[in-house]
Give the backbone structure.
Amino acid sequence: MALVELRGVRKVFPPSKRGGESVVAIDGVDLDIEKGEIFGIVGYSGAGKSTLVRLVNALEVATEGTIVVGGTTITGLPEKDLRRARLDIGMIFQQFNLFSSRTVYHNVAYPLQVAGVPKAERHARIAELLSFVGLVDKAGHYPDQLSGGQKQRVGIARALATSPSLLLADESTSALDPETTQEVLALLRRVNEELGITIVLITHEMEVIRTIAHRVAVMEAGRIIEQGPVYEVFSAPQHPATRRFVSTLVDGTPDERTLAALRERHAGRFVTVAFRETGGGQSAVFSEFVRRGIAFELVYGGIEEIQGRTFGNLTLSLEGDPAEVDAAIAAVAAHADVQEVQ
Amino acid sequence: MGDTRLFELGPDLWEAFGQTLGTVAIALFFGVLLGTLIGLALYTTRAGGIYANRPVFVVLNFLVNFFRPIPFVIFIGAAQPLARVVVGTGFGIEAAIFALALAAGFFISRVVEQNLFSVDPGVVEAARAMGASRARVVFTVLLPEGLGPLILGYTFAFVAIVDASAIAGVVGGGGLGSFALRYGFRQFDPVVTWATVLIIVVIVQLGQLLGNVLARKVLRR
């Protein structure tokens, strides 16, 4: 059984003013998140991903459907039981949401106090957590004395205090610069690998998904339009929205403007070859051109890797005998997806 | 200057000063208590609040809007019947303190409500996500996180209470306001009036200073 199970989940917000229309934020989502994985949910703002993650710990109450976390049915749970269930679900936020009136130490202490952990035990646990996130020397500092990355590390320590089995990360790196983002992502990976905590990661940045997620779901208009292992979704996106997201990471085919500029400099026929790990190698493709005496040049595109597996799209300009070029394109199609660019 | 009675009125002035301090202190204490409770109720029962409850909010909001704008010189008289029930008399310093505390409560409730808006809703959400009960969120997150602005709000209310306390004389409540009216204004003795003004200014300045220092300490700025 999956750690988190969503079945037919809908969330409808009532109209914000009289006579207004109600907003369907989540429109029938089924989702399984397995124990031990880092599951990414990507989507543009307004896609419903933040609402979806809040349904999991019932900060928002689902209108329809069932949500089960670690065997506990969250939907319809009375407030008192819900509070106990939340001790097993940590959460971190885009704006960190640290208590500004409390020191780092007392921020991390808070969930332990809520859980009723005795003081001596609390002290030991806080020391352990601060050492895990590398902030032992900042215990007495207030949040406004910390950098963004340090704040998020406090947020992570605080979210892990009650040893949850699930961590919800809501745009947890979106307020950070690229370097700090990588630091925080590395810490989240340690949380996953060393502590075995399942992570649900909400983001609009594909780079974040690429860096640490195992599986990904793409959301649009309250629905999950595509999901699967990150490599599969990224290397062969099916839905237009997914393609747009993937194109933020790897170039697909050149747009019209780029194409026009390229044509001015390159006389040959343009083809875009989509390289995937499966279905033959790059050498098979290139040797096909060489063998037929075709001069080729790479004019656009790039190669990416996810967990050591490469994929990418390369646009080539081919010059040579027209019949040979036709034959080469047909032959290459056996090794990779090839598409003539008009 | 020569014909002022300020110096022979010394003991009366001292007594009036004590009455004002006592009146203001007690009214501030109960006003803060009442106002904080109503202010918290307004903030938390509002749509989207942790105790969101429209009927409760509408009733409280109406009550505050109804009572708060009544000029204190009228309010103090209008509160007389209620003062008789609660403090046993409609006259004297007790009645004045009662009316002042009640009016301060309504006033402070708005100040508290508005200052709580400065608390980042994200920290409330974070505490809820950690499994904190709503009551715990109010007392361990909402109030501590809003304490700095709240202290400044209470200081603001303190100045307003000092101002309103001058009207306590209407129901025979004494204090610096009555003193200035009786011995300064009506006796054409501007020295007495201005001496009273000076004392009130000092009280207000000291109160404001204390409030600023406390707020700065809480906000660590």
